[in-house]
Amino acid sequence: MDLILCAGLTALESLIANHLPGRETGPVTTQVALALFLAQYFAIKYYRIFLYHKYFSPLRHIPGPTNNHFLFGQAINFLKAETPTTLYIKWMREHPDAPFIRYLTWGNTEVLVPVNLNAQREVLQFQCYSLQKPKWFLRIVKEVAGHGLILMEGEEHKAHRKMLNGSFSLKNIRKLEPIFQEKAKDISRYFNQSIRENDNKTGVIDCTTTFSKAILDIMGQAILGVQLDYVKPGEGKTEESTQEQGNAIKKGCSFHEAYDVFFAPKAMGKVLLFANGFIPTRWLPLQANREFLFAMDWLNDVLRSLIRERYREVSTATAAGKYEPKDSRDLVTFVVEESMPGGVAEGIGEREFLGHLLEFMAAGHDTSANMLSWSLYLMALHQDVQDKLRAELNKLPANPSYNDLDKLPYLEAFSKEVLRLYSPATTYHRETNTDIVVEGIRIPKGTLVDMCPSTTLLNPAIWGDDVDEFDPTRWDRLTGDQLSPYAYSPFSNGPRICIGRQFALFEIKTILAEIVRNYRFVGVEQGFTVENPGFTLRPQGLRVRLEEIRE
């Protein structure tokens, strides 16, 4: 934008200079025009980077950190932090009642972080469609997320949200009970195998790896309609073998490997991933780039092939009069069936269809896996909580239904408390697409906004002095601001609240019911880290020791 502005100014100034009365030296030369262009461009950049945020911005009086790098603001501090949310939480606790915190990032660009409940409500609910994904964020996630519901804006988002609601309705989710139950038992078999391979008394699992594979198993069947069986001992099954089912899943990679490239890249991969939001990096001839592009191409090709194959299957069977709609439909089949004339998805394009699948597979599996990982971590540290949860779960039938799980107050409180302390989503990045006013603060168009769930989930002004303590019983005595829906928003809130939240909670509770009744989590084996930078709170190297409960 600045380049266009300076080019236009230079052209206008050259035109005026060439037509000044009495001018005898001839037209403005290319060298003079270039010098004029560069002088103006660097003057504008100097103003934007070094002067605007200090002296002219209408947001300059909003509280925030002051230990800024002269050029990169807080960007370097974010990279050095223990987790992606560390700095947001630190700043929130310095200003727990403020509507917003302002911090500076690359090039001293201003970013606002909503803090108090009124600001959260305004941004998430009433000004929801006045904010959109910023261009830097889209450049980072476009290969893994495509153009689906999460990245859609305005009327397009509303239309596709309405289109997909049926697939994620409670009625449809309840039909997935057998899938959730069987996959939960696969995890138990995997735990048993880890015990046998150790000393036949205890076993150790890498939580993130184990649950990422397990949730991908569920997503494969519930979203794609294919069996992946990553954690099913003795199967040795990969995507390659699913070709026998008629699914066009090619060799060379797997969903787990592909998503690891995005969510847990190595050092160079992280640099390239996040730098790509600001300057193009994917053209560089580096191994990390080759691995990333191969994995993302694999994901896109596989999912596109599944869509086309499912369309062929349904169309061929329908034309022959032999097609019978499935009672418990995976998402691909649901959208294919509903895209027929008169269906709610009639007219959906392949680009949007592919985008939905890319987003649900990526976001859906990683956040649920992280929540289960943190659950085991907290149970290993708090044996009394684990015992109380097990006592409640032991009252369930062997294969608990949605209704059975929904009646358990301590399981509900446990799940909420894990999500409060370790919200799987770290930030939702937005940019205002028009001027807005929130809490009396005028926010100009183009302002970046970071919504961090932990600013309310871990706010002592809302939850009290014991905000950092793991205490599921707090959910039995909520008062005041704790009762606000905006105080607890690990799945976001408002019109853009996570469409798959009921799906995620049901699968998580089903898995917890299976593994907590059959295993005791006795300790955390070693230190671990949290992926940073990252879009989710993903523990790296979290290994928990477990033992089977024998009657």
Describe the protein:
A 5-stranded mixed β-sheet has the order 1-2-8-5-3. It has helices spanning 2-18, 30-56, 75-80, 86-94, 117-126, 135-145, 154-164, 170-174, 177-198, 207-224, 255-263, 267-275, 287-319, 331-338, 350-381, 383-393, 402-406, 409-421, 454-457, 460-463, 501-518, and strands spanning 100-104, 110-114, 131-132, 202-206, 428-432, 436-438, 441-443, 448-451, 519-524, 529-530, 539-540, 543-548. A hairpin with a 2-residue loop joins strand 6 (436-438) and strand 7 (441-443). 40% of the residues are buried. It has 21 helices and 12 strands.
Helix/strand layout:
Elements (H helix, E strand, L loop, with lengths): L1 H17 L11 H27 L18 H6 L5 H9 L5 E5 L5 E5 L2 H10 L4 E2 L2 H11 L8 H11 L5 H5 L2 H22 L3 E5 H18 L30 H9 L3 H9 L11 H33 L11 H8 L11 H32 L1 H11 L8 H5 L2 H13 L6 E5 L3 E3 L2 E3 L4 E4 L2 H4 L2 H4 L37 H18 E6 L4 E2 L8 E2 L2 E6 L3
Parallel strand pairs: 2-8
Antiparallel strand pairs: 1-2, 3-5, 4-12, 5-8, 6-7, 9-12, 10-11
Helix pairs in contact: 1-2, 9-10, 9-21, 10-15, 11-13, 13-14, 13-15, 15-21
Q: Which terms summarize this structure?
A:
single chain; 551 residues; alpha+beta; five-stranded mixed sheet; three-stranded antiparallel sheet
